[in-house]
């Protein structure tokens, strides 16, 4: 390693600081955990700089559905858009950084997107907050400028399901072999993002300066990812896409749900999906937001059991099971029992027709009254 930087001090003297290796890999890992801004979120996105929430260090990853942790990633961060960011740290003196670490992190990501339940990530984050004597909900609100925690975790889960994750190789110096691999992967992979971050250390006169630099954002990679970003859906675009994907009865069912939501809800949230539109009826009671379900333009309704878990009275399992029974009473293909903590989908066609639609909306009339009754 070689090179230096020069600081012009207030007294006019020039201070030379020379590049120096880190004493250990653990030191570099500790610095990243303590100072997440070293991930250079402003370089990743100049218009909307990335902000970071550290879930934990050494987060385990299983290789099967019921398996225990087979590997562990050095750091798991999440940005303000709920994008999980896996960071693997190596010193440049470690020869594995040239090729072996690439397969390692790709293997982590391939299994994490399948075998990381959102509840596991939340538990690790809350445990880390407890150790640091921080309030987890306040950290999320601070990161997202006021977003409700359950909405945030819903985004994280959706991004995991889609494979929308960020893989970061971090070192004091990124070798040329790794730089070429990262640039190639970042141009080819979508919606995943692959980056390297070089954090050089300069020392002089009892001072240390850390200088991060993001590698991998070639103009071709940025152009591909920009053209694949989602759009803001609205009523007309949603119904147009739904008409192309389904039939007239299904479209009429979606319109009826939308009209019901306009009269019953505080607002309707429209999605920004790349290939699928969605709207979510939301009502607010005692300053708590209740997202009921998502109607999707491919012809499905996603039931938000997962978010119900944090809102009374459906934070009680018995109450969610009561809702599950009511929904299953009108469905030909029932929602499985284990789905009361997940986001199960039913088809719009399964609730189309006047009788079934009225029963479905009646169930959510009951849902609203139950919320109002206990609060």
Structure description:
The protein is α+β, with helices and mostly antiparallel strands and 375 residues long. Helices cover 41% and strands 25% of the residues. Strands 1, 2, 3, 4, 5, 6, 7 and 8 form an 8-stranded mixed sheet that branches. Strands 9, 10, 11, 12, 13 and 14 form a 6-stranded antiparallel sheet that branches. β3 and β4 (69-79) form a beta hairpin. The relative contact order is 0.09. The model has no long low-confidence stretch (mean pLDDT 91). InterPro entries: tRNA_endonuc-like_dom_sf (IPR011856).
Labels describing this entry:
375 residues; eight-stranded mixed sheet; six-stranded antiparallel sheet; 14 strands; 41% helix; tRNA_endonuc-like_dom_sf; nucleic acid binding
> How many helical elements?
13
Distance N to C terminus = 63 Å
Largest sheet composition: 8 strands, mixed
Structural class: alpha+beta
Instruction: Please tell me the total number of domains.
Output: 2
GO molecular function: nucleic acid binding
List the helices and strands and how they pair.
Blueprint: E1 4-8, E2 14-19, H1 25-34, H2 41-44, E3 52-62, E4 69-79, E5 84-89, H3 100-115, H4 118-131, H5 136-144, H6 149-162, E6 166-171, H7 176-188, E7 193-204, E8 207-215, H8 219-227, H9 235-245, H10 248-264, E9 267-270, E10 278-285, E11 288-291, E12 293-296, E13 300-303, H11 305-308, H12 317-328, E14 345-347, H13 354-374
Parallel strand pairs: 5-6, 6-7
Antiparallel strand pairs: 1-2, 2-7, 3-4, 4-5, 7-8, 9-10, 10-11, 10-12, 12-13, 13-14
GO molecular function: nucleic acid binding
InterPro entries: tRNA_endonuc-like_dom_sf (IPR011856)
């Amino acid at each position: 390693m070689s090179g230096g930087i020069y600081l012009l001090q207030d007294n006019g003297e020039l201070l030379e600081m020379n590049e120096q290796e880190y004493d250990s890999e653990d030191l570099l890992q500790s610095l990243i955990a303590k100072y997440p801004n070293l991930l250079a979120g402003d370089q990743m996105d100049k218009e909307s700089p990335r902000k970071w929430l550290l879930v934990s260090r050494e987060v385990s990853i299983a290789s099967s559905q019921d398996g225990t942790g087979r590997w562990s990633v050095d750091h798991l961060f999440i940005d303000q858009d709920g994008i999980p960011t896996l960071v693997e740290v190596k010193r440049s003196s470690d020869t594995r950084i040239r090729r072996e670490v690439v397969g390692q992190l790709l293997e982590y990501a391939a299994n994490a997107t399948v075998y990381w339940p959102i509840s596991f990530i939340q538990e690790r984050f809350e445990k880390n907050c407890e150790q640091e004597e921080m309030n987890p909900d306040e950290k999320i609100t601070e990161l997202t400028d006021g977003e409700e925690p359950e909405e945030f975790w819903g985004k994280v889960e959706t991004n995991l399901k889609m494979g929308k994750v960020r893989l970061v190789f971090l070192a004091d110096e990124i070798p040329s072999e790794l730089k070429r691999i990262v640039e190639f992967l970042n141009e080819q992979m979508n919606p995943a993002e692959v980056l390297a971050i070089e954090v050089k250390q300069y020392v002089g006169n009892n001072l240390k300066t850390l200088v991060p630099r993001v590698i991998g954002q070639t103009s071709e990679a940025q152009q591909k990812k920009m053209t694949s970003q989602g759009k803001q859906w609205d009523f007309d675009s949603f119904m147009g896409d739904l008409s192309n994907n389904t039939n007239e009865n299904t479209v009429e069912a979606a319109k009826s749900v939308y009209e019901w939501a306009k009269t019953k809800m505080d607002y309707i949230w429209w999605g920004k999906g790349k290939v699928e539109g969605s709207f979510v009826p939301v009502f607010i009671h005692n300053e708590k937001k209740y997202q009921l379900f998502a109607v999707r333009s491919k012809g499905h309704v996603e039931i938000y059991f997962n978010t119900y878990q944090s809102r009374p009275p459906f934070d009680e399992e018995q109450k969610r099971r009561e809702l599950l029974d009511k929904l299953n009473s009108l469905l030909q293909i029932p929602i499985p029992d284990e789905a009361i903590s997940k986001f199960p989908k039913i088809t719009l066609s399964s609730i189309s027709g006047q009788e079934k639609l009225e029963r479905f909306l009646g169930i959510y009339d009951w849902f609203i009254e139950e919320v109002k009754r206990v609060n």
